[in-house]
Amino acid sequence: MIDLRGAVVVVTGARGAIGSVIARRFAEQGAIVAGLDLAATDTGAVPIRACDVSDPEQARAAINAVVAEHGRLDVLVNNAGINVTGAVEDLDPGAWDQCFAVNTRGVFVMCQAAIATMKSQRSGRIINAASFAATIPSVGAAAYAASKAAVVQFTRVLAGELGPWNVTANCYAPGMIPSAMNGFAALPAAEQEELLDTLTLRRWGTAEEVADAVCYLASDLARYTTGTVLDVSGGKFATQRPQAAYRAVGEREEC
Ligand SMILES: NC(=O)c1ccc[n+]([C@@H]2O[C@H](COP(=O)([O-])OP(=O)(O)OC[C@H]3O[C@@H](n4cnc5c(N)ncnc54)[C@H](O)[C@@H]3O)[C@@H](O)[C@H]2O)c1
Q1: What per-residue confidence (pLDDT) applies to 28?
Q2: How far does the centroid of ligand 1 lie from the alpha carbon of residue 244, in Å?
Q3: What is the mean pLDDT of the segment spanning 172-189?
Q4: CATH superfamily ID and name for 8-186+204-234
Q5: Mutate-to-test residue for ligand 1 from 97, 179, 199, highest number of ligand atoms within 8 A of CB
Q6: How far is it, in rounded angstroms, from Cα 82 to Cα 17?
Q7: Residue whose CB lies within 8 A of the most ligand 1 atoms, among 18, 37, 152, 184, for a mutation test
Q8: CB within 6 Å of ligand 1 — which residues?
Q9: Is residue 167 classed exposed, middle or buried when 0-12, 13-18 and 19+ CB atoms within 10 A define those classes?
Q10: Which of 29, 42, 183, 189 has the maximal Cβ count within 10 Å?
């Protein structure tokens, strides 16, 4: 049973497609949730404070404010991220830096800000957004894929460093969840089919499915799991050609 009642949770990128649902899911399960994003809002289910995670001072101030208000910090979900695309030959080094500033340094500085509190509690959960792109990148995604692969290795090292304090650090790796960031749903139909053909479950994922995985990692059920990447991709990595199974089923007219 997932029980998050009373847990103090910070979710970054909490206005986004996945982050807003993660924040809401935690709140629905009784957690005290502080959302962070580039702009503040107090109109949704979860109040969101302004914090640019690429700025170490803002990151520290945001975590300190939550700890000052609630006396502890149980879960940090580093969900904020940006997508930067462009062939290596043409990629603007400034865009590369910005991608790493948010996706990788943002995770690092938020974790750094949270460590002392979690160590003093002898408990805590750090949950970082990786991506399927950290394992199997797309052409034109060098900056994004490298930034997410770095998050995976960073998280493993962090898990090692925080093990003695009973603080876990894991990644979640969403697969293909249509959002403004990736525009999957706006692609031409043939391209959508091509992408879906790479997925064992052969459908887009939902933000709710990612949020459920994040809540699991935050819960007591995952107390013996650290330094891992939880793949939430509908089986992107299960087999090379999952569409073969669909074809075989179709030929036998089973569906
Ligand atoms: N959607 C997918 O299919 C998918 C796949 C793999 C990984 N991811 C990862 O999941 C996370 C959420 O993605 P999403 O699809 O919801 O994207 P999104 O663009 O809908 O949301 C990202 C949020 O992060 C915020 N943000 C950007 N820069 C920030 C900064 N400097 N400081 C604070 N907040 C900042 C944005 O304002 C936005 O609200 C990202 O880390 C993304 O890389 C998504």
Answers
A1: 96
A2: 32
A3: 93
A4: NAD(P)-binding Rossmann-like Domain (3.40.50.720)
A5: 179
A6: 12
A7: 18
A8: 12-13, 15-19, 37-38, 51-54, 79-82, 102, 106, 129, 131, 174, 176-177, 179-182
A9: buried
A10: 29
Q: How far is the CA of 85 from the centre of ligand 1 (A)?
A: 14
Q: Residue 198: which residues within 8 A CB-CB, separation 6 or more?
A: 236, 242
Q: In the chain, what is the greatest distance between 2 CA atoms, to the nearest angstrom?
A: 62
Of all atoms in ligand 1, which is nearest to the CA of residue 177?
3
Residue with CA closest to ligand 1 atom 30:
52
The per-residue pLDDT for 255 is: 60
Q: Which residue, judged by its Cα, is nearest atom 42 of ligand 1?
A: 81
Which among 141, 136, 205 has a CA at the least distance from the CA of 174?
A: 205
Ordered by start, the domain boundaries in the chain are: 8-186+204-234
Between the alpha carbon of residue 170 and those of residues 6, 81, 213, 218, the distances in Å are 21, 16, 11, 10
Report the length, in residues, of the chain. Answer: 255
Query: What's the alpha-carbon Rg for the chain, to the nearest Å?
Result: 19
pLDDT of 92 over the 90 cut: yes
- Specify the pLDDT at position 45: 85
Classify burial at 6, counting beta carbons within 10 Å of its beta carbon; exposed 0-12, middle 13-18, buried 19 or more: exposed
